[in-house]
Amino acid sequence: MRPPFDPTLYLVTDTALAGERGVPDVVRAAVAGGVTAVQVRDKTASRRELYALTLAVRAVLPPGVALFVNDAVDVALLAGADGVHVGQDDLPAAEVRALIGPDRLLGLSAGSDDELAVALALPPGTVDVVGIGPVWATPTKPDAGTGLGPAGTAALAAKAAAGGLRSVAIGGISVERAAEVTGVDGVCVVSAICAAPDPAAAARALRGVR
Ligand code: TZP
Ligand code: MG
Q: Which residues bind 4-amino-2-methyl-5-(diphosphooxymethyl)pyrimidine (predicted)?
């Protein structure tokens, strides 16, 4: 059975933005404020550092808040994460599903119709959630592109839903803009929580509009 996964407010971690507070403390506060799912993402960490970070985040998560690891299937399995999130340049989703088995969650990024078609062409149950974005251009991932906008995001989300896939939107989502994002099952944020002086308050504010 897949672990429970509520995509409503999905935090993607950023070690640099968390700063001296450390990612686990930011995650703990964010979950207290209402974050429903967490992805450990650190493109600069070694495999060993990512493993240690994932264990530390896992230790602060209550049951029911799903934990994903970005890219690193080995780390996700070893750390007992609930799932993995991959992009379209990472290992192919079907192969990742074969590695993780039926009892973990799999997220796949989809930033265009063509990329969404990849997710929709997979056998049912391969992918649990598509990450649509960026909604807006974002300094957190400068190479992500100019942004689909709320309308483009909603159009992809509608296609995902028609194909039986849940969706989350990512990229440039702030407390102020979160209500503009429609059609998705949840929103993913990095800087809106990790760079906030009070991550719990930021999460509460986001839950106020989602
Ligand atoms: N993928 C697309 S945009 C993005 C990722 C990982 C970064 C989103 O960061 P922020 O700070 O929420 O705009
Ligand atoms: Mg990736």
A: 39-43, 70, 109, 141
Query: What is the C-alpha separation between 29 and 156, in angstroms, rounded?
Result: 32
* Mean pLDDT confidence for 51-62: 98
CA separation (Å) from 177 to 40, 75, 187, 189, 204? 23, 33, 11, 11, 15
CA 103 from centroid of its chain's CA atoms: 18
Assigned superfamily of 9-209: Aldolase class I (3.20.20.70)
Integer Cα distance of 14 and 39 in angstroms: 10
Give which of 115, 110, 154, 165 is closest to 133, Cα–Cα. Answer: 110
Q: Is 141 a catalytic residue?
A: yes
What kind and span of H or E run contains 12? strand 9-12
Instruction: Name the pLDDT band for 154 (thresholds 50, 70, 90).
Output: very high
Kindly report, residue by residue over 68-79, the tens digit of the pLDDT. 999 999 999 999
By alpha-carbon position, which residue is closest to atom 3 of ligand 1? 171
- What are the residue boundaries of the structural domains of the chain, listed by start? 9-209
Q: Ligand 2 centroid vs 85 CA: distance in angstroms?
A: 7
Distance CA 41, CA 85 (A): 9
Q: What is the pTM of this model?
A: 0.98
Q: Which atom of ligand 1 is nearest to the CA of 41?
A: 6
